Amino acid sequence: MPIKAIVFEVNFTVWSGILDPQKWGKGHSARPKLEDNLERDVSDKRIIRDVSDYSREIRLFEDIPKIIHDIKKRRIRLGFVSKDSPRAMCDRALYFFEYPDENYKDVPIIRNVDFDETGNGDYINIFKNIKGWASAEGGEILFFDCHEESLAVERELGVHVEIVSHRTGVTWDIYNGAVKKYERGGGGGGKGPDTPYYGQPKLGKLLGEGKFSKVYEAVDDDDAVIKVLKNWTTEQRRRLLEIYAVIKTGRPFDPGSNQQDQYLCMIALELRNLHIINELKDPKPEDFSGWFKMKKIQGTHVWKHRLYRKHPFSVEFQEFIKSCMYLTMDAIEHVVKKYGVEHCDAHFKNVVFDFDGDKPVRASLLDWGIAVRMKWDGSRYIRGDDFQLIVPIYSDSKPGMKYTPDEFRRYWIGWMVKTEYTALWSRNVITSRDGEEFLKDLNWWYRR
């Protein structure tokens, strides 16, 4: 696939340093317009200084003129972006910095820029526009940056992103290697899963987004969805593998107060659990690089059913959600007995149902991040030693606890009722006073 456009973040990628509007043009002889404070060094044309403070400078990385010459020679369209520096300052710098044109005459870089999108940090929209302007698919655009958060452009739009060192910027070897790699059609390079988002399939419609991840339809598999973690890094992968090596054996991993380890432990548990219950489609947990494809669970959330709109203290509502809760309990027990994993957060947001009219007939569980090992020995359920990072309200799921089938059902049905009615009063559907009074007697709920 040919490369139709090559785009650079300017700061730390094209030149060393940053054109920071909060710092440039602040000296005693500063000029009113920020861009007027940029001046090319008289002895080195690859350096631009701040006329109000000569100690402040940016330096064009050595190979950039050669790289731009090659881009224009190949008739590839050229673009620049910057999320931290105003366009006027960037344009002035790109005017002072030069490259050799087709006649090897030094000319200002700015004269041959096709996409000047500096001064705008909304990279997703910028690259959507560039795709249109260049009549290019995401895989026909190459973007160089030193910030790993720019990998979001690759995840969402399919643009090839090369992360470079802020110390060296884009070198000729990096540029030439990337062009050769992607023009051959290689998407992941030779680094394998250590490369963030290595091998990630093409993403379809965005289905949902949380603080740490997004979930998409899988273009190539109607029976799957793809979960993509935000801002995944090689360093995170290395630590994740260490954590996964512990928990896959059933041994507990305690992340303590380390927030990064807490985050990675949740990911490791979700991967392990999905793998155990045969819902992880790709990749293997050991090959995780920031995304995974999992089985699409079909069904309807309970709040979309008409009976859920009845008053929470009405007979219709209670009989309806009681049936849903017992089907959820059936699903929990089925997975424990078949796979040895206990879902520990089966509130209605994490369950979907099949309905036959007003009758719920089957429950399916979602979101396996909060789940632990559990064994059924033929007479009792025995919880494993997994460290449970998040313990939902009303939960008492300590490692090693043992339950008869009746005790296990009473425990989880009680938890579901309390969790549901607490959610109802938190949404002001009922008052907390009425809800707390209602929860004092759950005997009816324990009878199926």
TrEMBL record:
UniProt keyword Iron-sulfur, yes or no: no
Stored InterPro entries: HAD_sf, Kinase-like_dom_sf, MDP_1_eu_arc, Prot_kinase_dom, Protein_kinase_ATP_BS
Pfam families, per database record: Acid_PPase
Key words, A-Z: ATP-binding, Nucleotide-binding
Entry-linked PROSITE patterns: PROTEIN_KINASE_ATP (PS00107), PROTEIN_KINASE_DOM (PS50011)
Record carries keyword ATP-binding: yes
Binding site for ATP: 227
UniProt GO molecular function: ATP binding; phosphatase activity; protein kinase activity
Record-annotated Protein kinase domain positions: 201-448
Protein name: Protein kinase domain-containing protein
Species: Panaeolus cyanescens
